[in-house]
Write a structure and sequence with these properties.
By secondary structure, the protein is an alpha/beta fold. Helices cover 47% and strands 8% of the residues. Helix 1 runs antiparallel to helix 5 and helix 2 runs antiparallel to helix 4.
Length: 423
């Protein structure tokens, strides 16, 4: 796959190496009948899987249960994909002709096109709304979403490299000739020495690539991978410190700030349309979005988290309260299981009310039995010291540990509670 014939001609020494990388890779990995599996889609699947694995381990150490993670992830992933695609669509110069008049193109993600800022916006809103439904802080959920994005987006950029849909400015004004039969057959990656082109330039030869062939471009997607790795290296050290020691939500604000800075920088090299605004005609749409995020959104998230959030108090040894569920009251749940999302607060309250009524009835029955026994003993006369007849033994109900009691001990024996004054 990698053509070493051209690399061997580079020789040795300290002189700078100039040239460009040639990529001849079909964006379509393989086909299953009419269905095409793209490298871009594979990159997303790999990125999501690895990011979800990382976030799951992080969440468990913070005392969050697996079903809470999965329930929020599914909704957030859907919101992120929709937001990323829609934000890409509205930025296109042919929005009306190619998308409004042809709405099928809006969902044609196989043709490329996801704006990560849109995924952040709608995914974060979805996450903030859904997290309280599964009994954990929306601010900590945003922190988890930021960690997920910081890990997953790195892999997505590899799909962009194969597609050729994220490139920088061209190093030449037109196509150039590739020597010999370099990368004549796909898949292939080769390096071609050239004294006039920096060594990190990339050229696409495959006719299915998204940009013109035989033109060396700045590898903007590779720039983004480098900046994302720097971000992840910094955030990785803060993934537990900020939520536990400072406040939940600050990690998300830190990610937003760093991502905005990275996009503002990298888009100076991206071959995108200039968007004049406020009398400035040198910035692009994503850079204006980065400015808005850094100037307005990051401080807003920071101030709101400072006002409404607090350090995360739970851990693996002291997890989030998420009680086990049983099919029926009195049926013990297996150790280690957690309450599924289908059990609502109303159903738990109803179960608690039923249990309380049952406990009161048993307590009344126990008191009645004791009273009858006492009257029978008084009618038969006093008994000797240490001599207790069998008929005087109260018929106590057995202890039933499976009955939920809302965290309080049940008193079904009719004896005074610990908080009551003794008679």
């Amino acid at each position: 796959m990698f053509d070493m014939s051209t690399v061997a001609s580079l020789g040795s020494g300290l002189e700078p190496v100039l040239g460009y990388f040639v990529l001849n890779i079909d964006p379509i990995l393989f086909r299953i009948g009419p269905i095409a599996i793209h490298w871009y889609g594979l990159a997303y699947v790999v990125g999501i899987s690895i990011a979800l694995f990382v976030v799951s381990r992080w969440a468990r150490r913070l005392g969050i249960h697996d079903d809470q993670i999965w329930s929020t992830f599914l909704w957030t992933a859907l919101g992120g994909l929709i937001g990323g695609r829609l934000y890409y669509v509205i930025q296109q110069p042919d929005l009306w002709q190619n998308f409004i008049l042809k709405p099928i193109n809006i969902i044609a993600v196989w043709d490329g096109g996801m704006a990560f800022f849109g995924a952040i916006f709608l995914g974060s809103i979805t996450l903030f709304i859904m997290a309280p439904r599964y009994n954990f802080s929306p601010w900590l959920a945003l922190d988890g979403g930021a960690l997920f994005a910081a890990v997953g987006q790195i892999f997505g950029r590899f799909g962009n490299i194969v597609n050729g849909d994220i490139v920088g400015y061209a190093y030449t004004s037109g196509p150039i000739t590739v020597p010999g039969d370099t990368c004549a057959h796909a898949p292939c990656i080769a390096f071609v020495p050239d004294a006039h082109i920096p060594w990190w330039a990339t050229m696409y030869l495959n006719p299915n690539a998204f940009h013109a062939q035989f033109i060396p471009y700045q590898p903007a997607a590779l720039y983004e991978i480098g900046l994302n790795l720097i971000m992840l290296a910094i955030l990785w050290q803060l993934r537990f410190i900020l939520p536990r020691v400072v406040r939940a939500g600050y990690f998300f604000a830190a990610y937003l700030a760093m991502y905005a800075i990275s996009q503002f920088i990298v888009f100076f090299a991206r071959d995108n349309v200039i968007t004049p605004f406020l009398g400035i005609d040198s910035l692009k749409q994503a850079q204006w979005t980065a400015v808005f995020v850094f100037v307005f959104l990051v401080p807003a998230v920071f101030l709101l988290a400072r006002r409404y959030s607090k350090p995360w108090p739970y851990s693996y040894l002291h997890p989030v309260p998420w009680p086990p569920a049983a099919d029926e009251v009195g049926t013990p749940a297996r150790p280690g299981t957690v309450r599924p999302a289908t059990v609502t607060r109303a159903s738990l309250a109803a179960r608690a009310s039923t249990t309380a009524k049952s406990t009161q009835a048993k307590a009344s029955a126990a008191k009645s039995t004791q009273a009858k026994t006492a009257r029978a003993s008084a009618a038969d006369g006093p008994t000797g010291a240490g001599d207790t007849p069998d008929s005087a033994t109260p018929d106590l109900s057995p202890w039933q540990p499976a009955h939920p009691t809302g965290g309080q001990l049940r008193n079904i024996f009719g004896t005074p509670q610990a908080s009551e004054e003794p008679a």
